[in-house]
Amino acid sequence: MDSIYDSQMRLVDVILKSLDGLMYGSVNITVHDGKITQIDRLEKHRMSPPAALDTVDKHSKVTLNRVERAGM
Q1: CA-wise closest residue to 43 among 26, 20, 18
Q2: Nearest in space to 30 (alpha carbons), one of 17, 18, 16, 40
Q3: Could you report the per-residue pLDDT of 8-36, keeping only the tens digit for each?
Q4: CB count, 10 Å around CB of 20?
Q5: Which of 44, 49, 60, 62 would bridge 53 by S-S if both were Cys, CB 3.0 to 4.6 A apart?
Q6: Distance CA 12, CA 30 (A)
């Protein structure tokens, strides 16, 4: 039978492995009745938008600024 210390160290190991290599994102620890029941890792991958989307985005901002100045 494992000791409480061994169980806790396994949880710490799982949490540390979840953090390993994570550049953007989060690690969520769910607790029920004082015990860890779930560990979730959410990893985000940042990507640059294509040039065509940059052009559309700039146009949208210009249009939005004109509407705001017009009081609409």
Answers
A1: 26
A2: 40
A3: 999 999 999 999 999 999 999 999 999 99
A4: 8
A5: 49
A6: 14
SS3 of 3-72: CHHHHHHHHHHHHHHHHCCCCCEEEEEEEECCEEEEEEEEECCCCCCCHHHHHHHHHHHHHHHHHHHCCC
pTM of the model: 0.58
29-33, 49-53, 68-72: which has the highest mean pLDDT? 29-33
- For the record, the structure tokens of 46 come out as 């940042």
Residue 28 sits at the vertex; the CA angle it makes with 24 and 29, to the nearest 5 degrees, is 150
